[in-house]
């Protein structure tokens, strides 16, 4: 269809259509510095424009790839020379938050950090937070059902959505932007679009849940000799910190020591030689007593012999330095030449055994692998297991090996990053043939011409 670009321009305005030629200068996504192949990138400014663009493309059998901040880790926004990229970045308005109802209505193009800051200015908290907060957008986070650092306290993205507006492949607009939790009026359609990676509809707007913003924050780095003590301490903190625990991030020593060395050299924040390190944070509402309570609970865990050593951050600068160990992956990316990352969920009680088994299997069956870095959101049962290879040669057998082990432990092959293209061939390790066939039935029902983000997820 040679006159597609002028037609798109007539729908959204000429300056909001970027040609395929110009896109060749743009990296494909956060992780791939290769040019973006596409016919064009279109930036609608309203839901009606999104609807018109989708109807036009669907009518002509042209694939549309929705995109937000392009920070996904599953090749979920990959395009080809024939497809149209649909950026939601111009749908970036934030309505005034409802302070009593604890809700806010936002466009899909709002950047996570912008929303966090807007809510904080009103004494409110939007409970989603992760490393890509400065680029990832609400539409992308909803479409991947992102998790992050505070899922322990506020849940995953799915738990934060009250109402949704989205557009189907043929341009039909479904709008149900309700501001309340209780709504048993038939099928909960929004759940189909949350976590479906842009394959069933394009999210344009959402009503999100908010919380009162805590006023205190206490952070500690803890070290442990064994995993049982880590699990006991998580339970203790959940119970004794009176519901204020917001993060509990675990790091196995191979990753922790590597990143401490890369970031701070000899200046270690805590003694060496432990079997596990955990970063925990509590956020509360009692300025006069939260600090003392936090110290008391950590002291009790030290006294009980569960925590081997503890450092409590004395300033926001020290807190940021501790979090950098958990959040900074630059050195790791350089070290693992061909980096292979597994984002998995497992029952907490088998995690340690699983990691030991992966480690042993890699050493014996893939000797070229360059080590094993493990960290994760322990409170949510979510681990990030990363390894690397000098060349891609053994990548596929390495993945088969680890995904096979995840399946044997009955874990999830994608805790929070989604399936995209990268994990599509491994979906059967976590979902049954009947479930995958039901997903296909849904896709066919909502997008019979297969024009919305084709080839992703299933
Ligand atoms: C440093 C770093 C740290 C990260 N940490 C975490 C973490 O802790 N937890 C976590 O869950 N993820 C994490 N991620 C992954 C990533 O940031 C999330 O998946 C994020 O939610 C993607 O948002 P995005 O706007 O970049 O979406 P994109 O990457 O642009 O798109 C993601 C998917 O959503 C679809 N999509 C985008 N917008 C829409 C829309 N409006 N309607 C329909 N479909 C749409 C796309 O087609 C694609 O399938 C991290 C990424 C990085 C780079």
TrEMBL record:
Its cofactor is FAD. Signal peptide: none annotated. Residues 33-213 form the FAD-binding PCMH-type domain. Pfam families: FAD-oxidase_C, FAD_binding_4. It comes from the Bacteria. InterPro entries: FAD-bd_oxidored_4_C (IPR004113), FAD-bd_PCMH (IPR016166), FAD-bd_PCMH-like_sf (IPR036318), FAD-bd_PCMH_sub1 (IPR016167), FAD-bd_PCMH_sub2 (IPR016169), FAD-linked_Oxase-like_C (IPR016164), FAD-oxidored/transferase_4 (IPR051264), Oxid_FAD_bind_N (IPR006094). Keywords: FAD, Flavoprotein, Oxidoreductase. Belongs to the FAD-binding oxidoreductase/transferase type 4 family. This is FAD-binding oxidoreductase.
